[in-house]
């Protein structure tokens, strides 16, 4: 449950969003009750599944009017949020809202994700990336994963039945150094609106050739040929790095070790833990709260599917680091 203070700040955010929307038309939603349920509670639903740690950095890719970025920034004042969007009117609206709310942990950048993903000051510097209502999952991966450091996570907010999108990501995941981990399902309160959160872990550094130039990811999905090219380039880059280290008398090459894992928990680079276990904490954020149902399996690959609440009609597939299909959706994350 939210504290009364955060509840009031979220309500103030809704008022400011409505005012900016009236001026700049940043969203088609004009009804305040609908906005609260379908946008604010939807954005806050991640809080029921993941707990960010103080000092972590989160980037919201395609933030629009600050959804989910500003909502999450309100819930986590000790976490740094960077909101990016390519539309000036939307980033201006976000800046105005952030100023009025007095948020000090939230900044805004106007620019294309492809360009920012090639910026060395931003590339692979974030513990988490989130994105809501922006593009298909293969496109989102090329927007978001360049910004996430190895061991970090990307979470895509999606609607019901995302199986097809997940299955279409095989080559994108392998090319961009990602690994599909799990899908979490929940329902918005007071309605039948089904939502999902798709979790992808960044497991390897990506080739410097990605993301591709502006506009290409949305027009052309990554292929097997792109994947093979990326793997070769990554190997060449590692060799160059090792040679450079030897020339300087260094006894160590680049850090190519696996992501550290412990029995019962998983840690990302920033320290947030994700337990493998018997379920996830469900419950609400704000008025009414979000009703959640869980899909996960035990073990690294395969295992039996277990559900809390209604199970989806078709089992989700997951892919390993080599792009192979290996059983149903990934592990649970602890409350």
CATH architecture: 3-Layer(aba) Sandwich
Order of helices and strands: HHEHEHEHEHEHHEEHHEEEEE
* Order of adjacent strands in the largest pleated sheet: 3-2-1-4-5-7-6-11-12
pLDDT averaged residue by residue = 79
- Oligomer classification: single chain
CATH class: Alpha Beta
Based on Cα principal axes, name the global outline.
globular
Strand percent estimate: 15-25%
Task: Draw up the topology in text.
Layout: H1 4-24, H2 32-44, E1 57-61, H3 69-75, E2 80-85, H4 88-101, E3 106-110, H5 113-117, E4 126-132, H6 137-144, E5 148-158, H7 163-167, H8 170-176, E6 178-187, E7 194-202, H9 216-219, H10 224-247, E8 261-262, E9 265-267, E10 273-275, E11 291-297, E12 305-308
Parallel strand pairs: 1-2, 1-4, 2-3, 4-5
Antiparallel strand pairs: 5-7, 6-7, 6-11, 8-9, 9-10, 11-12
Describe this structure as you would to a colleague.
The chain has ten helices and twelve strands. It has 335 residues and is α/β, with parallel strands linked by helices. It has a single domain, classed as Rossmann fold (3-Layer(aba) Sandwich). The strands form two sheets. Strands 3-2-1-4-5-7-6-11-12 form a nine-stranded mixed β-sheet, sandwiched between helices. Strands 8-9-10 form a three-stranded antiparallel β-sheet, with no helix packed on it. A hairpin with a 2-residue loop joins strand 8 (261-262) and strand 9. Helix 1 (4-24) runs antiparallel to helix 3 (69-75), helix 1 (4-24) runs antiparallel to helix 4 (88-101) and helix 8 (170-176) runs parallel beside helix 10. The longest helix is centred in the last third of the chain and has 24 residues, at 224-247. Residues 248-271, 273-287 and 291-332 have low confidence and may be disordered.
């Amino acid at each position: 449950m939210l504290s009364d203070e955060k509840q009031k700040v979220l309500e103030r955010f809704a008022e400011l969003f409505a005012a900016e929307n009236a001026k700049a038309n940043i969203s088609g939603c004009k009804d305040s009750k609908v906005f609260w349920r379908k946008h604010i509670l939807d954005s806050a639903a991640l809080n029921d599944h993941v707990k960010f740690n103080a000092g972590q950095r989160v980037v919201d890719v395609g933030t629009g009017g600050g959804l989910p970025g500003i909502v999450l920034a309100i819930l986590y004042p000790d976490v740094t949020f960077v909101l990016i969007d390519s539309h000036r009117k939307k980033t201006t609206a976000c800046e105005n809202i952030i100023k009025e709310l007095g948020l000090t942990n939230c900044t805004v950048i106007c620019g294309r994700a492809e360009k920012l993903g090639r910026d060395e000051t931003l590339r692979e510097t974030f513990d988490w990336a989130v994105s809501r209502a922006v593009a298909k999952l293969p496109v989102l991966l090329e927007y978001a994963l360049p910004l996430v450091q190895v061991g970090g996570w990307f979470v895509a907010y999606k609607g019901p039945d995302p199986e097809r999108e997940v299955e279409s990501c095989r080559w994108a995941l392998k090319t961009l150094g990602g690994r599909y981990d799990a899908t979490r399902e929940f329902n918005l309160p007071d309605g039948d609106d089904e939502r999902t959160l798709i979790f992808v872990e960044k497991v390897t550094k990506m080739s410097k050739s990605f993301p591709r130039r502006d506009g290409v990811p949305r027009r052309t999905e990554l292929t097997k040929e792109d994947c093979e090219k990326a793997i070769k380039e990554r190997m060449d880059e590692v060799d160059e790095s090792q040679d450079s280290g030897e020339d300087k008398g260094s006894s160590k090459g680049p850090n190519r070790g696996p992501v550290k894992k412990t029995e019962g928990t998983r840690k990302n680079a920033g320290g947030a833990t994700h337990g493998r276990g018997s379920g996830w904490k469900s419950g609400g954020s704000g008025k009414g709260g979000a009703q959640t149902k869980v899909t996960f399996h035990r073990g690294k690959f395969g295992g039996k599917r277990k559900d809390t609440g209604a199970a989806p009609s078709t089992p989700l597939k997951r892919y390993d680091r080599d792009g192979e299909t290996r059983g149903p959706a990934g592990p649970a994350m602890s409350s």
